[in-house]
Write a structure and sequence with these properties.
It is built from six helices and seven strands. The chain has a seven-stranded mixed beta sheet with strand order 1-2-3-4-5-7-6, sandwiched between helices. The longest helix has 12 residues.
């Protein structure tokens, strides 16, 4: 793989490359675009919601000036609905958000031609570099155990089952502890 160039973006800086990001999404989810939840329009809607939340950040990976992957997320606010579809019983403290406690990694994706070459990890690590939150959460579709295993090899731990939207598939919520102690304590 040629050298991966990483570029950080905030919500404002995402506007000029938004269509490129949608194109990458469409390439990766080509076989599922006919599902309402996985349509480009619904993805674009979810991307828009994220950009409106404090703490939004994105990292885009480029090879030869073409985007080959990206990750983005935001800081969960006290009014977040992130945990609303949680099916696993938890103490309230485990899902109480303060606006500084948890970074939600909403998407991390790379095109097939760079998979298995470390691009996803580089993008992930750059996105989380210098984040102030004590933990990171992400959702992995239950039907993708290899993806879950990859995140677990990066020290993410299973947190619970969640259905984030009524028409969404079942996901496993994972947590990455960034300090000492249990990530959900």
């Amino acid at each position: 793989m040629k050298r991966l160039r990483l570029e950080r973006r905030d919500a404002v800086g995402l506007g000029d490359i938004r269509q490129q990001l949608l194109d990458v999404y469409a390439e990766i989810y080509a076989d599922r675009l006919n599902e309402d939840f996985h349509s480009v329009e619904r993805f674009d809607e979810r991307l828009g919601w994220n950009t409106e939340v404090p703490g939004f950040a994105a990292v885009v990976g480029y090879v030869d000036d073409l985007p080959v992957g990206y990750a983005y997320g935001c800081t969960l606010q006290p009014t977040t609905r992130w945990w609303n579809g949680l099916r696993t019983p938890m103490r309230d403290e485990a899902t109480t958000e303060t606006g500084v406690r948890t970074f939600a990694l909403s998407e991390l994706m790379v095109v097939e031609k760079v998979r298995g070459m470390g691009a996803a990890r580089q993008i992930h690590d750059e996105l989380l570099r210098d984040r102030p939150e004590e933990r990171v959460t992400l959702l992995v579709e239950r039907g993708h155990p290899k993806v879950r295993s990859l995140y677990e090899s990066w020290d993410y731990e299973w947190f619970g089952e969640v259905v984030p939207f009524p028409d969404a598939p079942l996901y496993d919520a994972l947590i990455l502890r960034r300090g000492s102690g249990r990530a959900w304590a």
